Amino acid sequence: MLGICRGRRKFLAASLTVLFVPAITWIYLFAGSFEDGKPVSLSPLESQPHSPRYTASSQRERESLEVRMREVEEENRVLRKQLSLAQGRGPAHHRGNHSKTYSMEEGTGDSESLRAGIVAGNSSECGQQPAVEKCETIHVAIVCAGYNASRDVVTLVKSVLFHRRNPLHFHLIADAIAKQILATLFQTWMVPAVRIDFYDADELKSEVSWIPNKHYSGIYGLMKLVLTKTLPSNLERVIVLDTDITFATDIAELWAVFHKFKGQQVLGLVENQSDWYLGNLWKNHRPWPALGRGYNTGVILLLLDKLRKMKWEQMWRLTAERELMSMLSTSLADQDIFNAVIKQNPFLVYQLPCFWNVQLSDHTRSEQCYRDVSDLKVIHWNSPKKLRVKNKHVEFFRNLYLTFLEYDGNLLRRELFGCPSEADVNSENLQKQLSELDEDDLCYEFRRERFTVHRTHLYFLHYEYEPASDNTDVTLVAQLSMDRLQMLEAICKHWEGPISLALYLSDAEAQQFLRYAQGSEVLMSRHNVGYHIVYKEGQFYPVNLLRNVAMKHISTPYMFLSDIDFLPMYGLYEYLRKSVIQLDLANTKKALIVPAFETLRYRLSFPKSKAELLSMLDMGTLFTFRYHVWTKGHAPTNFAKWRTATTPYRVEWEADFEPYVVVRKDCPEYDRRFVGFGWNKVAHIMELDAQEYEFTVLPNAYMIHMPHAPSFDITKFRSNKQYRICLKTLKEEFQQDMSRHYGFAALKYLTAENNS
């Protein structure tokens, strides 16, 4: 299955062959030159018909010897090339990106499946393969739609980036959901020498919607058929991948296979490794026509320029129309149509060795594609069961997949030395901002965090939202890390409206969260919760960045700016929607305050009314929030007045005020300079006041803070003097910025701070 030029044993075999074949050939020819114990002359003169020694028998023997000699000389020439290639590849392997080019090994396909019309083009030689230039861009096309497929694409891309040594250009045919998710992800990932282009999948629906398709991929599973029209007309070749692919080698090795196409070969495909197209899986099973076992389209090499000249569009459409008259629908989406076309035109296909698409579906022959781990190139999870598929080595494949699933994507931001990257305005601006910072400043790390770009994956889980007809809907906004995950179910039980959450997680923690959410009936029953993953980077918890991410991706006109440790009162969602109308929030700059309380008890009988809460307050079961450590934070709410209030009342801003408020979605963002613990909400409320927001306390609303262990950041604040010094410095700089931005009106913040 594999080529003979792989590994040390093959190198030794090639060396011995080069040494001994000439000697054996010489002996063979010398022995063959005797007839009846006398030497037979091969002189051209004596080989003529008029030579007295000429006979028909000796002529045939002589011609046979000449043919054999030419064959041996050709074999010898090829082997010398192999030996030269192997010797040259040894040191190049250690040079990495400093080598100018590198050659690609290629094995042969499954010999059982070589058929007439494609055998000559597919038989693999072990001579020197065409090289992929060091900085040659490799083009990859992927069709992606929806939330789950977007997650799969990230794992696929990680596996490609991990092994790659070339610039990459991804062409993503995506629906609106996938485009929003992946555009933000790649923009914040900032991987050098990677370009992303998007193509609107929804605009392509009309091209394939006429084809009935029973496959779970739906209409998007047919869109690979129209890539010749969709991709740029000057793009000559592209590797097309399904989203459930994992690479175990450098994708440049696959790119190099294009150079092996001959004649009219325009499609590079691996044979299907199940019996699907043989039609013997069950009684009355009737698959689409295919050449033998057919081909799997999870990995495709497309020669776009030749396909366009062959009028591929017309070719597949006519074939599909003809077959649908009897088949009525496709079962395996585009794969059925590709195979029907190949059945009629076998010369189109170059058969890839099956290790380029090891198909892990039920009833597969994939085990014949590899003998060792080093044989694996591409793993294809093409069963609806995905990681639960039955396979003798599935545990190994699963672990390989999970490695990339949980791999820190920040580590893939490595430069390709020697390859010039396209100018990236965002990257250049970031470098400029960082260069202006003083690295000797004791608060350098604090200042640097403000400019750190965190990789962000929006809508990590499925999200659905139906806008309210009265335009009064409110989204609860919060942020959290892994240690607050247990609060999610409780919040979902208390708040039935939409929720936008920013989660600060590592790649591995993101997968733990995914498993937690998928195992929770409460969370899986809620589709109006947007989970946005902000990946960990740096030493601080970027609390205000997280809040901004959650705020930016709400779908409602209003938002309730909360924290994950708080449980809103039952019915608060509907109460706030009514308050929005009552207080005309749409046309006024108001911040509606939800009074905050706390309990020190982990088990709390949650109050179902204001009267019950006041009773618990009197009994000491509840307290006003932080009254014993940070009274100033919520004192302006005026809890004494709230006890008897029946209508909303206005309060004035005071120093260090940090209430939880309901505002319009166009309110200012949080200031990113504040990270970890301290002044992150205070600064935001100060900005609202500077923009003349009116603070109004809601008389029948409340929220309760639940107890938890101290966060890592508050521990650092309490124990690290330099942390407190830097926080004070940042606070003073923020106040100065406020004075410059808002002028004379902002002087009161400096005065209030000095008096507090």
Structure description:
The protein is α/β, with parallel strands linked by helices. It has 2 domains: 275 residues, Spore Coat Polysaccharide Biosynthesis Protein SpsA, Chain A (Alpha-Beta Complex), CATH 3.90.550; 294 residues, Spore Coat Polysaccharide Biosynthesis Protein SpsA, Chain A, CATH 3.90.550. 39% of the residues lie in helices and 15% in strands. The protein contains 25 helices and 27 strands. A 9-stranded mixed sheet has the order 15-18-17-16-19-25-21-26-24. Helix 1 runs antiparallel to helix 2, helix 4 runs parallel beside helix 5 and helix 10 packs across helix 11. The longest helix has 40 residues. The termini are far apart. The N terminus is likely disordered.
Query: Which homologous superfamily in CATH is the superfamily of the largest domain?
Result: Spore Coat Polysaccharide Biosynthesis Protein SpsA, Chain A
Give the integer mean of the pLDDT values: 82
Beta-strand percentage? 15-25%
Tell me the total number of β-strands: 27
Helix content: 25-40%
Total domains: 2
Strand order of the largest sheet: 15-18-17-16-19-25-21-26-24
Cα end-to-end separation: 79 Å
Q: Which residues sit in consecutive blocks of at least 5 with pLDDT less than 50?
A: 1-58, 83-128
| Apparent shape | elongated
Query: What structural category characterises the helix and strand content?
Result: alpha/beta
Membrane topology: Single-pass type II membrane protein
Family: In the N-terminal section; belongs to the glycosyltransferase 8 family.
Region (Disordered): 42-64, 83-109
Biased composition (Polar residues): 44-58
